[in-house]
Each structure stands twice: as structure tokens, then as C-alpha cells.
Amino acid sequence: MADAAAANRDFPRVYGKVGSLHRERLWALRLSYASLILASLIFLAPPFYMLVTSIKTNVEMADQTLNPWIVRSPTFEHYAAILGNPVFLTFFRNSIIVTILVVAITMVISVLAAFALSRMRFWGSQVLATGVFLTYLVPDTLLFIPLYQIVGGLGLLNSIWGLVLVYPTLTVPFCTWIMIGYFASIPKELDEAALIDGATWPQMLLKIFIPVALPGIIAATIFAFTVSWAAFVYPTAFITRPDQMPLTIGIVSQLVRGDTFAWGQIMAGALIAALPPVVVYVFLMDYYIAGLTAGATKG
Amino acid sequence: MAPDGTAKAIPAPAMRRAAGRSPGVSSLERLARRRSTIAFVMTLPLILVIAGLVAYPAAWAIYLSTLNRRMTANIGLDNYLFLLESESFRMIIWQSCFFAITAVLLKALIGFWLAHMLHHIPTRGQRKWRGMLLIPWVIPPALSTLGWWWMFDPSYSSINWIINVFGFPSIPWLGQPWWARIAVIMVNVWYGAPFFMIMYLAALKSVPEQLYEAAAIDGATSWQRLRFITLPMMQNIISITVLFSLIVTFANYDIVRVLTNGGPRDTTHLFATYAFQVGILSGNLPRGAAVSLFMLPILAVAAFFILRGVTRRTKEIA
Lengths: 299, 318
What we know:
The structure holds 2 protein chains of 2 kinds.
Chain A: H1 2-54, H2 58-62, H3 77-83, H4 86-119, H5 125-137, H6 140-153, H7 160-166, H8 168-184, H9 188-196, H10 201-212, H11 214-230, H12 233-238, H13 247-255, H14 263-283, H15 285-297
Helix pairs in contact in A: 1-14, 3-14, 4-7, 4-8, 4-11, 4-13, 5-8, 8-11, 11-15, 13-14
Chain B: H1 4-9, H2 11-18, H3 25-33, H4 35-64, H5 78-85, H6 87-120, H7 123-133, H8 135-138, H9 141-152, H10 158-165, H11 177-205, H12 209-217, H13 222-250, H14 254-259, H15 271-281, H16 285-293, H17 296-317
């Protein structure tokens, strides 16, 4: 009797609860989408505004009565102007040369070192692995003054070769660190089998480790690429001659001068300069994110 | 004597047999074959980069900061004392701390919130949103800050245009110290929040679903689930990310350089931009080195805790 009464009393409450749970979930979902839409609007506003500015005519840009966020008569004159500017093309060429060389150097150094550190235990290897991680935490702004003297002593100030020399400090520690993580996750049985078959160390690296850890290698390459493309502190400190400047500092220091800024051209130049990392990101998003999160979740 | 060919052929095996005992070429050969030697040779480029381009410059910076301007005499800690006595540098210390702490807290909160929101929506849509929200992190900050600079421009500010639409007066973004400080923090948060979001999303995904199921059976509210499951499980990642971002934010250079260049009246300078101005632009390298070395204590503390967190996490996984 008492049980039945209790059940009768309880049932409506249970149903009511289920209903409210459903409603609660719906609201949570709405809140999620609202937050995401708001965040996307704010996050994408600056690049969108850069794009809008880059396709506006100068007349329209100067008219303060208009809504700055929309463009009425789109034009590509700023893109034509910036792409016809030999100085800008020099910046672009310098960035490409420096980035390709730095990525190649970084990957050779870090893959070799990570292979040795993850598989061949030797005296001091543990200390070295920790050291690699610590150097990753040393920011470039702490090192640029002594490096200014060192690079100057080598006669490489005002030269892209100075940048090729110092950029590895930005890329090598992190790439080595995540490659150690990827190599360590390869099962030991695989290299034992290779050793039994008489494989040498170089064969093991080239035929087993690099193919198996390819996702890690792609992630590390993307990281090295984006970091050396976006590097700003070192070129600002070491380079004052326009013909040796990479894109970042070139646009900031050479296009922005005088009282009247050519905003359309600056924005067009900045967007073109930002394009390579964004394209890499769009096509290789999963690797990009894997590399990003690997620093803390692996290793 | 036999012809050359046989003369060479006979001693060769004999030499190899003797390799175990006699020193000389053979022991060198043995050394080269040893595993640790190969490993050392493979790590040599890495060691050169770390020693030559990070450790040596760091040590050199400490020595450099004890020299006088012309680098002719050692003046001990005078550069540091001079900096600490100057009113403007004390303000830079304060501004650097204020900037870094505010920016990191905001980035962490916004990143945490967005990661949660992303985690809640159906998995199918997550990829698309995540891809869009990470865009600020992908654009080189020096270039995106140019866009922000133009948005803050005093005469044509497009942000003020929006503010005016809602009926509020225009804000002198980069003209007044406090607004300039807020502007610099805003840009830094815009750039860094997506990174926190991605890290926290990865952490959220690694929390086992059974824990939430068990909590649901026990009748836990959503706040209790957050407080007693999500936060403890994510604790390590949260602290690693916050400390890592603290280092990077403290050492920030490009945003301030492009947006305000330290102005108005040196109120937005950080350690890095001030070190650049003193060391490179004014040519006082020793004092510039001293300015940038003020970052070292904070870095050392943060690095210690990061390393502890990462080691702990590695053990958890293993």
C-alpha cells in the first residue's frame, strides 16, 4: 500500500524531471551555439576587416560617414600595387629562402637527435632530453641582445644568413621534443625485429621510424614552418636593410612609414604574407592541431 | 714477396683478430661502432644548437649585463640598481605583470568556456567550429596586429563605429594609457585564447565518459560534475598551459611593438620592448640585457612547475 502510494506520488516527479532535463539540454545546446557564434564573430572580425580594407578604394576608405565594415565598390588595385612592388617581392623571396632552409635544418637535427634520445640510451641522454624541453621555454626576447652581439661578431647582421643561423633556436627544441614523444610510442618489438634481420641504425631510422612516425614528422614540419614564417623579434633586431628583410618585419617597417599610411596596400600585403601558414593550416588542420597539443599531452 | 694483392689479403684477417687486444686504429674503429658513439654523433647538432645558440648566449647575457655602456669596465650590479631606482622602469615591471597576468587569466577563462561549448555540441559540427576558432592563432601575430592597429586608428576606428552604433561615445584606444593597456591585452587575448581552447578541448576529450555516467547515476549536478570530475582530471593540463602561456605572454614583443611601440608616454612597454629600445635602438646593450634578464626569475619558477607537471603527466600515461 505505502509503496504504491509512494510510487504514484513519485512518478509525476520523475516524468517532470525527464522533461526538465530535456529542456535543460536544449538550453545548454543553444547557449553553446550562441557562445560559438559570438566567439567566431569576434575572432574573425580582424582578418575580415583586413580583407575589406584591402579591397576598398582609397576614396571610400577616407569617407568617414560610411559603414567601415562593408565595401561598396571592390577593387584589386591594392593587390596589383603590392604584387608589382619589387621591394615586397624581395621580402617574400627572403621569407621563402629562410623558411625552407630553417625547416630543412630543423628536421634533420631534430629527427636524428630524437631517434638517438628515444632509442639509444647513453650517458647524459636523460639530462639532454630535459635540457631540450627547458630550452623550448627560453623565449627569444631573452636571447636577442646577446645573439645580436654574436651574430654581429660573425658579420651576419643585416643578412638573411644570420636569420638562418638563429631561427633553429625557435624551432629545434620543440620539434625534437615532440619527435621524442612520437618515436617513443613506436613499439620496441619493431626495432628488435629489424635488428634480428640485420638492419643497421640508419636503415632502422629510414625504413621504420620515419615512415611509422610520419604524422609526427608532418606536425613538426608544420610547426617549424609557421614559427620561422612568423618570426619577428630576431629579424627586427638583426636586419635594417630592406633588401634582406623577411615579410613580417618588411611589412611592419617599410610599408608603414610617413604620416599617410597606404592602408589598402598594407592590409593587402599583410594578408598575402599571412596566406602560406593559413593555407597549410586549412589543408593539414589535424596535423597542425596534433603538433599543437603534443607539447603537453605527449612526451 | 708476393704480388700486392696477396700481400694485402693475408694480413687483413690477422689484424681484425688482434682488434680485441691492440690499441690504435682498431680501437678507434671499435669506438666508432659503439652504440653510444653513434648516438652522440646523432645528437651532436642538437647539442651544438642548444649550447651555442641558447646556453652560451644566456650566460653571455648575464655577463654582459654587468658591463658599462661602452663595455670597457665591469660595473657589477649597477645596471640593475639603476633600473630599479628609475621611476619609469618600476612602472614597466608593474605593467608587464599586469599585462601578463590579466591576459593569461582572460585567455584561460575564455579558452575554458569555448572548449566546453565546443565539447557540448554534436561531434559532427565540432571540426568546423574548431577550425574557424583557431584562425587567430594561425595568422602571424605581427601581421594580425597590423589589422588591429587599423581597427583602433583614431580617425577611422571601425571598433568605435560599432560602439557608436550602440550609442556610446568613441574611445581613444591608443591615445590614453589605460585604453592603450586594455587594447594591448585585448589583442593578446584574441591571439592566445584559441590556443587555450584547443588544449582544453584535447584535455576534455581525454576524460573517460564512464566517470560522467557514474556521476549521473549518483545524481550529480552539472556544477558538481565540473567541480569533482572535469577540473581534477584536467588539472595538470590547465596548469601546464597557464604556466606556458605565462612565459610566452611575459616575453611578448610583437603586439606591443606594432600596436603602440610602448606609447603613449612609455606606459605600455613590456620587458621585451623596453629591452629592445634600450639595448638596440639606444645602443646600450648591457643595460638592455639587464632589462630582459628581469624576466628570468618568473621564467625559472614557471619552467620548474611546467617540468614537474609534464613529468607527472608522462608517468600517468605510462
